[in-house]
Amino acid sequence: AAGVIQSPRHLIKEKRETATLKCYPIPRHDTVYWYQQGPGQDPQFLISFYEKMQSDKGSIPDRFSAQQFSDYHSELNMSSLELGDSALYFCASSLGGLNEQYFGPGTRLTVT
Amino acid sequence: TQLLEQSPQFLSIQEGENLTVYCNSSSVFSSLQWYRQEPGEGPVLLVTVVTGGEVKKLKRLTFQFGDARKDSSLHITAAQPGDTGLYLCAGADSNYQLIWGAGTKLIIKP
Quick one: pLDDT band at residue A98, thresholds 50, 70, 90? Predict the structure, then answer.
């Protein structure tokens, strides 16, 4: 079965640069969630989209923005990167805002 | 703010032993999910429990949702080295946002 696809899998950026992470949800899933996970921490919810509209907002910094496109894929845009932004970024998708979230493999972002 | 306390945080046992991981909260969840995560990879959904008192089995793993839908447990029978990983519970609140437990790092020694 098709799973959530994230790209790139690894990304290295310098401080103050920008980064764009992409997420392709499971086919027919209409809800996308973004999470940030630091070493040894549980996933921290950033933001979610349902039917291309922002549905919920968590601890997403103002330097970050995200959107969901007409084909339901989502992009997380990160600007003015800081060392503390280094983390694993996961995207998850679900159907109709139901609770079962299926996670992608993640993007490991390293800011130097 | 809903909190989900997961215990133990770390568990190292010998192959063949049984173990139980607990997730407890003072709040009611509409459902609760258990995930397993390998280092550097995304959490993999193991099971979702919805009904109070519900018990689901996945091979040697038994998941139970408390009658009041405030707590859940994961019991592994005859643990194997392949069970090693980080186990996370996550409860869905009324806005379908997941409230995560801190995770249980499980090591099964051969």
Answer: low
